[in-house]
Amino acid sequence: MKNVIVGTAGHVDHGKTCLIKALTGTDTDRLQEEKKRGITIENGFADMCMDGYHISIIDVPGHERFIKNMLAGIGGIDMVLFVIGLDEGVMPQTKEHLQILSMLDIKKGVVVFTKRDLVADDLEWIALVEEDARQLMQGTFLEKAPAIEVSAYEEYRIEELKQLMVSQLGDGDVRNRTLELCRLPVDRVFTMEGFGTVVTGTLIEGSVSVGSPVRLYPRGTPSRVRNLQVHGKSVETAFAGQRTAINLTGLKKEEVKRGDCLAAEGALEPSLMLDVRLQLFSDAAFEVENASRVHFYCGSAQQLAKVVLMEQDRAEPGADCYAQLMFTEPVAVKKDDRFIVRFYSPLITIGGGKVLDACPVRHKRNDPAALSAMRIKDRGTPAEVLALTVLEHSREGISEARAASKLRMSAVQMQETLAPLIAAGQIRNVGRDGLIHTDYVKQAAGVGEEILRAYHQANALSAGMAKEEFKSRMAERLRIAGGKSLEGILAYMEESGRIRFGEKTAALSDFTISWSPELAKLRDRVFGYYAQRRFEFPSIDEILALEKDKTNVRHVIEVLTAQRKLVRLDYQYCIEAQAFDWALAQVKETAEKNGSITLAQLRDAIGTSRKYAMALLSYMDEQKITRKVGEVRVLA
C-alpha cells in the first residue's frame, strides 16, 4: 500500500474541515476554541484507505492570522485539495494559498468547489465563480487540474471526489521518499503519563522503527524510539507519508519544541546559513533589499533570516535570484527543500524558493565562482552536482554516505552517479571519508611541489625533506588535518611521477644532488676525516667542531651514507665503507672458525680500541648480522 500525503488549502470558512469529515468521518478540529469559533486554528489530521493508497490528510487553517500554522503543515504533501466555497468564490487567502502551493512545488491537485447546497440552482453564479477560479489558476500547477462541485453537508458527489483523488494520485509516480533517511518535522510535543515525551508530525522521508536511534535537530540531541503510533494505532515501523506519533527516550518535553526535526543520525547538517534560490511573487507587496530581514518557513520551522543577495542590491516583485540566508540560530533542512518567506513587518507572504545547499560556506557578493556553483546546484545534472560537492569538501574529504545524504540520493543512486566520475578520473576514492576531486588534488600537488622545491634550493645536498615533516608542512599549507584527503594527494603525486618517497624522505622526482666547487671541497674534507681515521672514526660532533658550514656537514654525511661511501653506525658515529667491510670480514672469518667472536678479538683484529669495536658490534647486532649470546657474538 502506498502512503501519500494530501493537504487542503483555501480561504477561511470555505468548508475544508467539513469536507475532510465527509471524506473520512474524522472531525479534525480538536481544540475547544476551534469548535467555539467555527474556524481551524491548528493543523488537523485524518486518514483513509482506498484502492491501494493509505492517504494522510492535513487540514490547514484558512484564516490569514494563522498562515504560519498553515505553512507548518503544508510542506511535503503529494497532492492538494484546493477548496473554493461556491457561496463566496475566490477570496484573499484563496490566492495566497495558491501562491504558497506553487512556491512549494506541489504538482498534483483537485479543485473542489464546496457548499453546492448553498447556491442551489443559481447556475449563472456557479459559472461565474468557476470562471474566476480558472483565471486565477492560469499558469499554475492547477491550470489543468480536474474540478468537482460537492456538498459535504449533503454528501453530494463525495464518493466521486474520492475516486478523482485516487485517479490523480495514480497519474504518474508519487514521490518515493522511502529511500532517504527518516525525517519528521515536529509540529506538536506533549507528555504522556507512564511513557514520557511524545512528538507528532508527518514523516516526510524514510522510515522509523521501534528501537531506532534518532536525533533531535538542530541541536543534534540523541534519543531512541520507544513506541510508535500511526493515526492512533500502534505499529512497529512508520513510513514516509504517514502521520506519526513517536514516544522518545531520554528527552524531556522542555527540550523539544515545534519546529525541531526528528531524523536519523547523519540525515541533517545544522547550519547558520543556507544557499538558496529566492523567488518573489510577481504581485508581492514589498521588495527585498540586501541585508533585510524576512520570516523563513520550512517544514514546521519558523525563524528570522537576513537575506544576502548575491548579485543585486534589491529583489523586486517577480525576482528570481540567488541569495544566502543568515540565521542567528541553526536551521536543519536539506538540499531541494522548499521554503516560504514573509516580509518582516507587516507580516505578508512575499515569496519563497528552494534550498541549494543546506550547509554552505560564506560567499562574497558578486563572486563569479560562487554564482557558478549556485547555478550548478540549482540546475546541474546529478553528476555535476556530485562533482561540485566533492570538490567543495575535498580539503577534509567526504564519505559516500555523507554526500548521498547532502544530495538526497539513495545508496544505489550514489553508486550509479559516482562510478562514471571515478572511471573518468574526475573523482578519487581513497577509502572511508575519502572522496576527493582531482582538480583539488592537482592544485594541492602544486603546493607540495613548491614546498619541496624551496627545500631543495635551501638544502642542495639533502636527499630530501623528512617525510613526516613534508606531510606536516602540506597539511599546514592546505589547512587540512591530514587523514584520507592528504593520503590521496600524496598518492597522486607519487603515481603521477611528481615526487619520490624514500624510506624516510620526500623529494621531487627530478631532483639530483649538485656539487658546487665549495661543497665538493667540503665533501672531500669530510670523507678524508673518515678515510684517515679508519677504525678510530671521528664522531660527528668532532667534525662539526672542525668546520664552519655545520648544516652542510650534516648533509654531506647524509649523502655519503646514501652513496655508501660511509656506513652510519648510530647517531654519532660513521665509518668509511671499505673499513667497515674489512671489519665485517674479520667478524665472519673468526666466528665461522671459532663458532663465535668476542669484543676483544675484534678489537685486536682491526687494531682499535674497545669503544670503536663496541660501536661496530652493536651496529652488526642491530642489522642482525650477529647475535649476542652471553659475552660473545655468533653469526645470526
Describe the fold and architecture.
There is one protein chain. Helices cover 36% and strands 27% of the residues. With 636 residues, the chain is an alpha+beta fold. The model is unreliable at 33-41 and 62-66 (pLDDT under 50).
Average pLDDT: 88
Beta percentage is 25-35%
Uncertain segments of ≥5 residues (pLDDT<50)?
Answer: 33-41, 62-66
The named CATH superfamily of the largest domain: P-loop containing nucleotide triphosphate hydrolases
Number of helical regions:
20
Number-wise, the strands total 34
CA-CA gap between termini: 75 Å
Keyword list:
single chain; 636 residues; alpha+beta; Rossmann fold; Elongation Factor Tu (Ef-tu), domain 3; six-stranded mixed β-sheet
Topology:
Layout (H helix, E strand, L loop, with lengths): L1 E8 L6 H9 L7 H6 L6 E7 L2 E7 L7 H8 L4 E7 L6 H12 L4 E7 L1 H4 L3 H15 L9 E3 L8 H12 L13 E3 L2 E5 L3 E7 L4 E3 L3 E5 L3 E10 L2 E2 L2 E3 L3 E7 L11 E3 L7 E10 L7 E2 L3 E6 L2 E9 L4 E2 L4 E12 L6 E6 L5 E9 L10 H12 L2 H11 L7 H8 L3 H13 L3 E3 L5 E3 H21 L6 E2 H12 L4 H13 L3 E3 L3 E4 L8 H17 L6 H7 L3 H13 L3 E3 L5 E3 H18 L2 E2 H8 L3 H13 L3 E4 L2 E4 L1
Parallel strand pairs: 1-3, 1-4, 4-5, 5-6
Antiparallel strand pairs: 2-3, 7-16, 8-9, 9-15, 10-14, 11-12, 11-16, 12-13, 12-15, 17-22, 17-24, 18-21, 19-20, 19-23, 20-22, 23-24, 25-26, 27-29, 28-29, 30-31, 32-34, 33-34
Helix pairs in contact: 12-13, 12-14, 15-17, 18-19, 19-20
